[in-house]
Amino acid sequence: MNSSKANIVLDFFAGLGGYFIFLKDTIRWMFRPPFDAKNVIAQMLEIGYKSLPVTSITLFFTGMVMAFQIGTAMDAIMSGSSVFIGSGVTIAMFRELCPVLTGLLLAGRVGSAIAAEIGTMRVTEQIDALKTLSANPVQYLSVPRFIACLVMTPLLTVITDIVGVLGGSFIAYFSLGITLDKYVENILNYVSLFDFLSGLLKSLFFGVEIAVIACYQGFITRGGAEGVGRSTIQAVVKSSMAILISDYFLTYLIQKFN
């Protein structure tokens, strides 16, 4: 039993080390020519632009739900206190909900696609073909996706911040009877730039985690079509877990330095 537990621990740290080595290789190849700007832009469109509908709709309705739940609870405790709903919804959106939910949605949509695409190339020996053409697979496949996730995850988070706050204003006006100017005034009075930047910082880390985990799972794919499916599932599960676990530690560190 002890030997089995030791093997599990060793496998865990070996796998974790593999991710960090892959991250190091990806960053190293980012700054080496040739620079494939066309591929980077294509990945940005795939990861960012095509993810915009699902992230925007999800966070708009999340903002509506937040405003409705918090507003009715505040009014139940003290009549008229829901006038402060603007800052409550905005702080929750900026600090936690928008970066985390955007990251989880990208892990599902983008992480699975990256792992499946690279995994398919691995099992069909296309990655080996790249090596024979003197092209580094990490530079050709991982770097553009890494840069795209690093740039587009924060940009999507900014958009979902705005959309989420708009969803809250919709419910505040139509369900709670709070005028738009009161809603905005409460946000300006109680929400700081730090609230916005803390969520943006988290989204940078989430973008790195999604790209590294998804690409690495694709590169280590073995076993044909079944292996591709397994790698895709692993990419989504592991990147989602990494986002949720790192969110706690990032929140703790950010609050320490506040």
Protein model, in words:
It is a single chain. This protein has 258 residues and is mainly alpha-helical. The protein has one domain. 86% of the residues lie in helices and 0% in strands. The chain has helices at 2-30, 37-47, 52-77, 85-123, 126-132, 137-174, 180-190, 193-219, 224-256. Helix 1 (2-30) crosses helix 6 (137-174), helix 4 (85-123) packs across helix 7 (180-190) and helix 4 runs parallel beside helix 8 (193-219). It is elongated and about 70 Å long. The termini are far apart.
Order of helices and strands: HHHHHHHHH
In terms of DSSP E residues, the strand content is under 5%
Q: Mean of residue pLDDT?
A: 91
The main sheet comes to: none
Q: How many helix segments?
A: 9
* Relative helix content: over 70%
How many domains? The number is: 1
Counting helices, strands and paired strands, the structural category is mainly alpha
Distance between the termini: 45 Å
Shape: elongated
For the secondary structure, the number of strands is 0
Radius of gyration: 21 Å
Unreliable sequence segments: none
Supply database-style keywords:
single chain, 258 residues, mainly alpha, elongated
Please provide a brief summary of the model:
By secondary structure, this protein is mostly helical.
Topology, please?
Layout: H1 2-30, H2 37-47, H3 52-77, H4 85-123, H5 126-132, H6 137-174, H7 180-190, H8 193-219, H9 224-256
Helix pairs in contact: 1-6, 2-6, 3-4, 3-6, 4-6, 4-7, 4-8, 4-9, 6-8, 8-9
